Hints:
Layout: H1 4-41, E1 43-47, E2 62-66, E3 93-97, H2 108-118, E4 137-144, E5 149-153, E6 156-160, E7 168-169, H3 170-174, E8 199-203, E9 208-212, H4 222-225, E10 228-229, E11 233-242, E12 248-249
Antiparallel strand pairs: 1-2, 2-11, 3-4, 3-11, 4-9, 5-6, 5-8, 6-7, 9-10, 11-12
Amino acid sequence: MVSPYERYSSGLATRFGRGFLFPLLKILLIAFLLYLFISRLFITSFQVDSGSMQPGLEPKDRLLVSTLVYGGRIPFLGQLRLPALRPPARGEVVVLQSPAYVRPAFPWSALEPVVRFLSLQRGSVVRDHTGRLTPRYMIKRVIAVPGDTVRLSQYVAYIKTAGSADFVPEQELLGSAYAIRTEKLPDGWSEEMPFSGGLEPLTLGAGQYFVLGDNRPDSSDSRSWGPVESDRFLGKAVFRYWPAARGGRL
C-alpha cells in the first residue's frame, strides 16, 4: 500500500518536472538554436587570447565579428556557406580557423557547439596530444590577396599587386592606420630563419590570402604555415566592445 507521503512526493516531483524543468529545457533549446543561427550566419563574439595583435588588440579584448560578410556557415549542413557579400580585403582584421585545429569526428562534432554555447564560447571538446585545449580560431590581419606578391624585410611587408612592377610598403598600400610591433633580430639570426623578419617573394594563387599578426616577432601566421584559403575565415572583426574604455570600430 502506498502511503499518503509517497503519493504526495511523487506528485510533487511530477509537478516540478512539468512546471519548471520542461519549460527551462525548452528555453535553453530555443536559446541554443538562436545562438547557433545568429553566430553562424550574422555576428558572433570573439575573445583575443594572445598578444599576437599587439599593440592594437590586447589579450582579453572582446570583439564582435561579422560572420555574414564572408558568407555565414549554415547550421547542421556541415561547411556549407551562404554567398559572401564580398571577399576579404587587405588590411582587414579577420578571425580564422587555426591550422592546429582538427575538426572532431561524430559525436564530438555535434557536441562542440553545445559545449561552446554552455561555456560562453570558452570551452571545447578538442584537445591536443597533451590534453590541452586546442583553440579553434585565431585573429590576424589580411596583408595580401589573390594575385599579390608579398615579401618581408625587418618584419615589414612589401606588396606588389597583380600587374604592378613595384613593391609597396604595406601601410602605404593598405591605407589602414594600424601599428605593428617589430624588434631587431638577435646577432647571428638571419632573416631566412624561422619566425624571422624576412620572407622571400611569394605570389598568391586564386583564393589564397597572406595573413600576419601585428606583433610580428610573437605571432604564428602565414610566415610559418603559408597562405590560407578564404573558407578558413570565420568573419571580419568589426567592433571592440570590451574593455569599454577602449571600445570602438576596428
